[in-house]
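User: I'm preparing a small set of examples for a lab meeting where we compare how different chains pack in three dimensions. I only have the primary sequence for this one, and I'd like the structure in C-alpha cell form so I can line it up with the others. Please keep the answer compact; I'll paste it straight into my notes.
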Amino acid sequence: MRRSWPHRGLAPTRGAALAIARVDTGASLVRFVGIGNITGTLVSDGDARRMASHNGTAGHVAPRIREFTYPFTGKPLVILHSDGLSTRWGLADYPGLAVSHPSLIAGILILAVPGLLNYIVAIYLVVIRLLGLFGSHFH
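Assistant: Understood. Below is the C-alpha cell output for the 139-residue chain.
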C-alpha cells in the first residue's frame, strides 16, 4: 500500500491534519507519518520523544509525505493529538499515568487544557474508564 493514499483520498474534502503510527513490536520500531498540526509522541522506558510531522494539509498541500522510524525498548506508548492539546504536557507531571488505560491518559491530558468543552470531554473519558474498571458493580 502506498503512503500517499490518504492524501489522495482527502482531495475532494476540506482536507485534514493526519497522522498514522504503526507499532512494529517485532522490529521494536514505530513507523510514523504526520501531515499538518498533529503531534506524535513516543514514550519508551520513561523517555518521551516527539515524532516529526510535516507542514501541510492532507488532501490539498502536502509537499512532503515521509515515513520516520523511531526505535523503542520495553512497552511503547504512542500519543497522537491535534493542536487542540498543548505540546507542553509531560507524563512526568502525572506519576503512573503512562501505564494507565488510554481513555484515562487522554482524559488527564485534556484536563490540562482550559475550556469547558475540554473539561466535559475529559470527565467523560475518565468516567468511561472507571465504568470499565468497576462496570459490574454499577448494574
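A couple of notes for your slides: Residues 93-139 form one domain. The two ends are 45 Å apart (CA to CA).

User: Perfect, thanks.
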